Amino acid sequence: MWLKSLLKSVIVAILTFEAKLVLRKYEPTIIAVTGSVGKTSTKDAIFSVLKRTHFVRKSAKTLNTDIGVPLTILGCENAWWNLWGWIKNMFDGLLLIILPSSYPEWLVLEMGADHPGDIKHLASWVRPDIAVIGRIPDMPVHVEFFDSGEAVLREKKHLADALLPQGTLVVYGDDKKTEAMGREAKEAGKNVLSYGTDEHNTVRGSELEMMVDRIGGRPTGMRFTAHVEGKEYPVLIYGTVGRQHMYAALAALAVSQAVGVNMAGAIEALQSHETPPGRMRLLPGIKGTTLIDDSYNSSPAAVDEALGALSHIPTGKGRKIAILGDMLELGKFSAEEHRAVGKKVAGIAHLLGTVGFRARDIADGALSNGMKDNDVLQYEDSRKAGKEFEGLIKEGDIVLIKGSQSIRMERTVEELMAEPEKAEDLLVRQDPEWLRKA
Description:
The chain is α/β, with parallel strands linked by helices. It folds into 2 domains: 13-208 and 240-271, 3-Layer(aba) Sandwich (UDP-N-acetylmuramoyl-L-alanine:D-glutamate ligase), CATH 3.40.1190.10; 281-419, Alpha-Beta Complex (Protein-Tyrosine Phosphatase, Chain A), CATH 3.90.190. Helix content is 40%, strand content 20%. It is built from 16 helices and 15 strands. The chain has a 9-stranded mixed sheet, with helices on both faces. Strands 10-11-15-12-13-14 form a 6-stranded mixed sheet, sandwiched between helices. α1 (2-26) packs parallel to α4. The longest helix is centred in the N-terminal third of the chain and has 25 residues, at 2-26. The two termini are 20 Å apart.
């Protein structure tokens, strides 16, 4: 194990050194994105509105760590535990430094923080021209290795502090914590834009509602109004639901404003934007059901958003069903937060399935708040949960599926989706390395 750790440290050091030289040589404009809810969706939305008019590269999938960020800068893929793959990556990085190359003018980099110091380290050498700081709830994901939610907030703030002198900070403005970051940056002479639903935001969203197919009555996406510089723009986003995707779109519009992208063109780009797999994607399910695939990851705030979306979807004669896996990396807060989710489920869903031993507390919370025993089912395996729900779901049902990465809730989705042969294109974690894992 120590040998693998040493090897990883060496590889990270070499790739980081190469990435620094590449940034120095090509001088791309850098947009860095962080937050605790919706980082990847925000990064992808920003990419969608920029790619029409700029030569831009984004972080692939969720390459947002000390190794993922250098890989994105170098344009290389994750080689996992393939030593020759890493040697090739290092060689390709060297060629990029030595030889002339057509390099992107813009980079959209996602930055995550699993441990204290992660953002601080990345921000020490990736100085962004634009920093986007999204929502950071009181109980964010990955809080296990931090003393508190406030410690996570301080870690994310390092990105704002790393802005170049003439840089722009884009912040989620509906929360006092991130709004305070904006005020501090503005006092330091930085350009600051905010997004959200509150009146004071630079880019504001309102009138969010679901779009429903007129014939089948199934949800097809969402619409809202964007308010920018006194003008109103209708925004349509297909194939997904959830307020977090409105926030991602608003952040992208704020970035568009900062860099001078035509607003009408940016909104048109969002209409054809595809949200990332496993993030509140609408998929056809078996038996005429609709799946809300939110299987990428989970945290208390993200589950709260997902359940909120489920509560607002009309079902007609169908039912609302939630299949929820463990929320990991919550440390001492785990039991309390899982029970709180169960309490909310009891007021929204007709049927609950849980996956994992931590998720038993979701079941307990639901049962303690009025759900009947027969309407709460508990499993240890995500695929088994999917197989058993095949016999339980009925036409018209809306099924939300969510859980932390290692619970592999995409396997539940695969069992219930109408077109499992498209799993490779539609679901998360379909790389060979993930598929080989138990």
